[in-house]
Amino acid sequence: MRLDRRAFLAAIAASAAGRAGAATGDRDVVGEALRPWRPGGLDIHHIATGRGDSTLVIGPDGSSLMIDAGASSTVAPPTLAPLPDSGRRPGEWIARYALRRLADTGGRAIDAFLATHQHPDHIGDVDANAPLAPDGRYRLTGVSDVDALVPIRRLIDRGYPDYAVPVPSQAPFQRNYQAYVASRRARGLAVERFRPGALDQLRSGSAAPGYAIRNIAANGQVWTGEDDAVRTRFPSMAGLPPRDVPDENVWSAAIRISLGRFAYFAAGDLTSSTYDGALPWRDMESAAAEAAGPVSVAVAPHHGMFDATGPGAVRALDAQVWIIQAWHALHPSPSTLDRLLNGRSARVPRIFATAMADPTATASPWLTNRLASRQGHVIVRVATGGDRYSVVITDSRDERDRVTGVFGPFDCRK
Fold first, then answer.
1. Three-state DSSP class for 281?
2. In sequence order, which residues have a C-beta less than 8 Å from that of residue 197 and are 6 or more positions away?
3. Domain 5-14+55-409 falls in which CATH fold?
4. Between 20 and 30 A from 111 (CA), which of 51, 63, 340, 348?
């Protein structure tokens, strides 16, 4: 549901009046259920399924954006156990979580969905056990599982319509995703190509002053900082040796969400690896971070692995809070945690992981013990106006949304 300006301002006034009469309802309390979204506030939910990335954004005006819906089928021991359990597919758990949060807005649909790139832990894996969709054209997993339970009004991805860059997609999970996209188009549902530099593509509402979602980078293009202009970092793929053609991660979409002084950065699986300087143009992560500028909260690209969350990006973003969406024993790498915790920034950021494998935690306890949280859904709650925000952790082992930790409020940078 999206509120028009008059309804939005009325809701803000009613919310303020309610807070005056019941102050305890304005904050989250450990041991109690997560409080509902309030008009004027920005909530960013990092959903922990142990199977990949998924983020739900509820804007100040009640508009909704989901970023990715991972459903990796890689099995233990390198991966984490499914959360809350294996009784449903990851996309189903994500959809059920989204419905609980959308209920706060009076809505039952996702206004926009951004698939940052085509990997199973971001769009869904597929095997013979995945059920067929009603039209029989694709199997339900990840994004399509979400869409089956929570209608997606607009689907945006980096490769539509031909998915030919960097090379035509051939993996079963890619073919399945593209069959789902084709089915949407056949049913008259909206599908769009992500437009780097755009300010008008991902935000569905229009009532909240100061709320913006900027498309920062994708497909080798990065926003210049002026209007919606972009520059291209990649050379022509036609002249590259096959081994130098970037993999799917490097083509990921990156965005910046802002409300007042608050800013947030997310970039799928963008990486900073240049093969030790041999191919500097591959460092799309640093370029995107520089275009985004300093933020309050950043999601560690590529789950905080060794080839991402590099020094250039960490310096450029200078985030107060880092969030790691983890599902594998390599998430995060010790080198990444060392960079974040022992860097030369004026402040040491707080780090929150949606999950962490036991071997990861025990291998580098001098780093992992310094994380603010290592288990649970991570919710960033930005106050009306965007001057302050808090981080709330809820239990990911069931669907009660019980608060297990509250951090902040923190003042946004001036």
1. helix
2. 214, 215, 221, 223, 224, 227, 228, 229, 230
3. Metallo-beta-lactamase; Chain A (3.60.15)
4. 51
